[in-house]
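ARCHIVE CARD
Drawer: 12
Card no.: 0347
Subject: one protein chain, sequence and derived structure
Cross-reference: see card 0346
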Amino acid sequence: MKIVLCSSEVVPFAKTGGLADVAGALPIALEELGHEVIIAMPRYKEIQESRFKIQRAGKDVSYSILGRGIKVYFIENDKYFNRDGLYGDKKGDHKDNLERFSYYCKRTLELLKEINFSADVIHCNDWQTCLIPVYLKALYSMDAFYKNIKTILTIHNIGYQGLFPKEEFPKLGLDWSLFNIKALEYYNQINLLKGGMVFSDLLNTVSTAYSQEIQTKEFGFGLEGVLAERKESLFGILNGLDYSLWNPVQDELIAAKYSVRNIEDKYKNKRDLQKICGLPLKEDLPLLGIVSRLAEQKGFDILAEGIEKICKMDLQLVILGTGEEKYHLILEKIVKKYPKVISLHLKFDNTLAHKIYAGSDIFLMPSKYEPCGLGQLISFAYGTLPLVFKTGGLADTVTADNGFVFDKYSKGDLIKTVGKAVTAFANKKKWTALMVKGMGYNFSWKESAKSYIKLYEKAKSQ
């Protein structure tokens, strides 16, 4: 099958979040399954020839290679992309984002014809790519080259929709008839995500539970009605985990490598983490780890409310991440009060992140909503039991049989579940059995890629 993956960010070329990880890993897994894949993304300022072996493909297109032979095409336009920040800078979003990404979408479709890549499927990701299915059906449907191409849209986080003023609609090069409630109009604004949802052949999200949640008013961010109309075309596929990066057997960033065969060596990593964080070297105390953005979506509202009671339990807590200033201040205050219980690191530190996954007993992830979640998948790989709120991808992967789950989003339920985990930790035999169980899971991209192939085939058959 011939597949085009379109994404505004792709590892290792440009990244602001998890979308880039997906867009960098999935094509490699598809290639390994024998499919022909290319990627199209904007050529940002940070994509330098000195860092990547970039070759010319045309006057305004260049490319590099990912995997064995995946061509990553860079759509060039200095006016739009030769600047700091993928979507914005310290002052906020770039004012011309509508023009920037409409240019990228249209130029990507033109590129396919120029390189004669007759795709079976174009796989779009998030609002930045959503004009591709719109343009395909509104502007290119009469061109024989494009008529059999199908489109899939993956919604990674429905909270980000690409909203722009109605007055900018002429910049899209579309007929005004498409500015209506059944297409791109949303409360008298342009909504690119909505356009992609309406015009794509099939839709998916990054977990089964999230695909159901976004059809509700609570999680639909105003688009639940559109999704209700398309529920027969909406699917959930869990993101994969890159085990070449996250694997305690070969992780060079942790103090001691381990597997289920020498699982006791995990505790060498616990001691290492305790030393680094200035915590007492107590193996019998459960160590909870958090690697997260410090934001309400990630559960820091209820964690902040319950942190005092949690710190009074027989446990230790290590937190790594940055986010909303109010949570920085709350946590800094609690650290001063409980310096031997909690260790706070307000930064991004990849090495420390690996050490937290390897050295913690419990990985705390109380997200209010979580489309897929990567933290719980990584923690399983490292034999660290996840403690989560029952939502999205967390609900799809964590149960009472392999971790700790609370299903009422409240301070009280979080505290109660932490207490249960602390009690359970005392039973070393049962705890070790749960660790071994988690380490046996396979959330590889190969499995996710197989599900995507089925989705592409379904789109083709329509």
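Annotation on reverse: The first helix runs from residue 18 to 32. The mean pLDDT is 96.
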